Amino acid sequence: MNLALVPFDDRDGWIWLDGAFKPWREAKLHVLTHALHYASAVFEGERMYEGRIFALEEHTERLFRSAALLDFEIPYTKAAINRASTEVCERNNFSDCYVRPIAWRGSEQLSVSALNTRIHVAIAAWAWPKYFDEAKLKRGIRLCWAAYHRPPANAAPTAAKAVGLYMICTISKNIAERNGYEDALMLDSDGNIAETTGTNIFFVRDGALHTPIADCFLDGITRQTIIHLARESGVIVHERRIRPEELPSFSECFVVGTAAEVTPVGEIAEHLFTPGALTFSLKERYEELVRQPPAPHEHVGEGAALRVGCEPCSPKLSA
Ligand SMILES: Cc1ncc(COP(=O)(O)O)c(C=O)c1O
Fold first, then answer.
1. Annotated catalytic, 283?
2. pTM as predicted
3. pLDDT value at 83 more than 80
4. Which of the residues 48, 79, 156, 162 has the least number of beta carbons within 10 Å of its own beta carbon?
């Protein structure tokens, strides 16, 4: 059975919901839930590789930080969420899977004000081998320009992985797919290149990497990891404003994210790129890193990004 065709509410397995494991089909919420009406929810996207969730602690940190940005507090410790994230994979017999923690405001109050709502948390896991079609990965995916720009940081809590920020992503990605593209590239409010609907973006020029400054969109954990891996191998990384007019000056382009991992880009609208050596070497290095077994001093679930000294991760995420 092609799992992609099975609705997400009608599968076998277990979902961690508010502190206990529930049979998958019973993990439900009421239609008058605050989060459904007012987007008061934050989530994470993680990947388990060979029994270990990559950068689990950074993801959990971001989940808590996202909740704080949406003015609510997750009623569990980070350690409990880390443990539950790993346990939900084990309970469903996964060693390689995608993991989705989500926290949201409940149904005690249904108005813009939400001070009396209870906070709920669920964690689910499912098999999700590749974000983009495998056949398209080698020649690179095709991007078009997105229908919407990212809001500036003074117009939305842009550092949060908040469900409300994905409204413009879904609209943009739907239009892209209807027109035969794999994804859409979003600009910021000043017209600079920002990110796609679910990934951060990198360009290559003369052996150096160029990537937009992540100040109005998610500073992805994969983005931080790739910057570290590149610098570690002597590649210069420029984090800067990038104008769409610069596209012809870049030789390679790739996008990164937990779900998409490192995905070569073959086209942005009319601009063509040939996936090349730097893209493929970083892709390979990332794929090795996420599968690295924990060092002896590490406790279960600690992210490999920490081990390689991914300095930008922790301070930025918990700032
Ligand atoms: C909009 C957006 N940008 C960037 C990313 C990449 O973030 P990360 O590498 O932390 O998965 C994601 C994925 O979570 C995303 O949804």
1. no
2. 0.92
3. yes
4. 79
